[in-house]
Design a protein that fits this description.
Elements (H helix, E strand, L loop, with lengths): L8 E11 L8 E2 L3 E8 L1 E6 L2 E6 L3 E4 L4 E4 L6 E10 L10 E2 L6 H10 L6 H23 L6 H13 L6 H8 L3 H12 L3 H19 L4 H7 L5 H12 L3 H7 L5 E2 L2
Parallel strand pairs: 1-10
Antiparallel strand pairs: 1-8, 2-7, 3-6, 3-8, 4-5, 4-7, 6-9
Helix pairs in contact: 1-2, 3-5, 4-5, 6-9, 7-8
């Protein structure tokens, strides 16, 4: 058997849901796990005995055999959805709600591979396992003693919601009345990376989302992310990703979209 095949996790299907009209999650009981990552809007759901409110940037795992349904109607909603089986053992984490997910481009990658012809199944499965591995890391971080570091959490959210080429560690530090070194230290202690790298991650995540999820020109994306011009953005993107924005868009352009 190909050693790249993971017998414990089996991908079933996935897609990107978007609705501009009033919407509520259907009443369902699935035989699979369902992973939801919100890209925009809000979703209100009842999952078994638990009420969930998901907003952009948040993720949740719904259990197989448990009834879930929408509890409120919302508009302009978007989310990735992934169904999968755990065929051996169980998920290596108990946490099922995640207030942040730093690498949403992994969902674009999964859908891209799933919709390419003649791609081995293990390629899609590897993408799924990478997403689950990131959720496992987030779950372990939430269980660590640093979870109570509210300053780091506030800084994280500040960076996540404002990341652009014009945001610096120094500006972030000034906003919270800390030194740049202190901000970098407390952020790294909690999240494993410094504030500068965190800014870069969120800029790249937003750039990838815009490249994969919109038809905007590279020049428009550069302006939206506050780069001085498209050449500066292209150079920045190539430095961090190893390929140009246009090449990245061509590689990860295939998505399964639905609106029901």
């Amino acid at each position: 058997m190909n050693i790249l095949v993971n017998p414990a996790v089996t991908f079933v299907y996935a897609g990107l849901f978007e609705s501009k009209t009033p919407w509520s999650h259907p009443d369902r009981i699935e035989s699979t796990y369902e992973l939801i990552y919100m890209t925009k809007g809000e979703a209100y759901m009842r999952d078994g005995e638990e009420d969930l409110r998901l907003t952009a940037g948040q993720a949740a795992i719904l259990l197989p055999g448990v009834r879930h349904y929408g509890t409120q109607i919302t508009e302009d909603v978007g989310f990735y959805w992934v169904h999968f089986y755990v065929t051996e053992g169980e998920l290596p984490f108990k946490k099922r709600f995640f207030s942040c997910f730093e690498t949403p481009s992994l969902f674009s990658e999964l859908l891209h591979y799933n919709n390419l012809p003649a791609i081995p199944e293990y390629m899609v499965n590897v993408s799924l396992v990478r997403i689950l591995a990131e959720l496992c890391r987030l779950s372990e971080a939430a269980d660590s003693e640093e979870v109570g570091d509210r300053a780091a959490e506030r800084i994280y959210e500040w960076i996540r919601t404002r990341a652009s080429a014009s945001l610096t560690v120094e500006k972030t530090a000034a906003r919270f009345g800390f030194s740049a070194d202190h901000v970098t230290r407390i952020v790294k202690r909690k999240y494993g990376v410094g504030a500068g790298e965190l800014i870069d991650r969120f800029i790249m995540n937003e750039a990838k989302s815009l490249l994969c999820g919109t038809d905007k020109y590279v020049k428009e994306i550069a302006a939206e992310l506050n780069f001085s011009g498209d050449k500066a953005f292209i150079g920045y993107f190539k430095y961090h990703e190893g390929i140009s924005p246009t090449t990245f868009r061509k590689r990860f352009c295939k998505l399964h979209m639905n609106s029901k």
